Amino acid sequence: MQELFNIHKLDIIYGIIVITVILVLRLLTNKLHHWLAKEKQKKFPGEPSRPLNLLKRLLNTLWIVLGLIALTFLIVDESQQNNLADDFKTVLYIGVVLALTVIAATTANMWFKHDIQKKIETEQDPTSFKFLRYVVLVGIYFIGIMLSLLAFPSLKGVAQTALGGAGVMALIAGFAAQEALSNVIGGLFIITFKPFRIGDLIKITDAMVGRVNDITLRHTVIRNFENKMIVIPNAIINKEKLINYDMGELKCCERIEIGISYDSDIDLAKKIMQEECERHPLILDNRTELEVQEGKPIVRTALTQLNDSSMTIRAWTWERNYSDSFQLKIDVLESIKKRFDKEGIEIPFPYRTVVMKKDK
Fold it and tell me: Which of 1, 284, 296, 310 lies 20 to 30 Å (CA to CA) from residue 356?
């Protein structure tokens, strides 16, 4: 036993040193992760720890793989040790590049989030920063992947070409017909021409109405009034005709229409609708000074249509914004119906006369 130990003394010492180094590196990595997570919670409370956890797992895996390669030197022939040394360098290079990529992406992401939050608190438009955040993160990960590919001789040419200006142009030309690129270009158009911004209330179709929550490289996210997220590809939203309720002047005109029967008093129905609309606290007096002097009402009403079994009365009301307009409409419809019932104004509804014939 002593003789065997003397023969392999150096190998045993080498193995113990490698294992010790691996354990020390894992311990230092865990300590560093704990310290970084604690500091991040102090500066950025509530920020998720997924990137730090990913970095911790990446480094711990790297130490284990490097340790196994180092221990493999004990059992391979001298002719294979050069190849093993090259593998060790390759794994170390890829691990360092990936770790630096995660660190750079996490740092950039946290900086953008902090700056976006400051702009929101100071009531500035964060749209451009939110979009630029995605561009920067995609750029960091792209460069990290390309640098990792440089470690493989067979893929080195591809990585060098992609990292060069000509390579980027070639990639763009190759994907020009792809939907992904059209969405990216659509996102750039949205950021450049600003048909809407983060926080704007927009309407694309009757089923897609809500506030813009986010604009990414691929899609735009809006939150509807049911608190559900609607994800719309940028290429599609650029083709649609949309209504932006928060662009320019915010006040809007709401048309409230109710059908009454032909037997009902038109003047009384118009008066009730006018009074109920003007009584609402959200109504906006949009009259000019001349109209006020002439004694014109705040809410204009008129008979707009003669239907088969009803007459349509319309009231034009003005509100400060779309939200006020919606709230006023639902409130006024209820109050007008109650007043119609009291005043004897009939709202017609479909009915059918059935004639029963007796058998002979």
Answer: 310
Every domain of the chain and the residues it spans: 2-151, 183-244, 252-343
What was the pLDDT predicted at 7? 60
Report the alpha-carbon distance of residue 56 to residue 316 in Å, rounded.
Answer: 63
Instruction: List beta partners, residue 246.
Output: none
Separation between Cα atoms, residue 346 and residue 96, nearest integer Å: 79
Residue entry with tokens 């008093």: 265
CA distance 268 to 161: 79
Q: What fold, for 252-343?
A: Alpha-Beta Plaits (3.30.70)
The answer to whether the beta carbons of residues 256 and 333 sit under 8 Å apart is yes
Helix axes 322-343, 266-279, angle to 10 degrees: 140
Helical pair 78-121 and 127-149, crossing angle rounded to 10 deg? 180
pLDDT at 280: 94
Query: The whole model's pTM is what?
Result: 0.56
pLDDT the model gives residue 71: 80
Cα–Cα distance measured from residue 223 to residue 230, given in angstroms and rounded to the nearest whole number:
6
**Rounded CA separation 254/311 (Å):** 19
As beta bridge partners, residue 303 has 313
Residues 135-148 have pLDDT tens digits of 888 888 888 888 88
Q: What does CATH list as the number for 183-244? A: 2.30.30.60
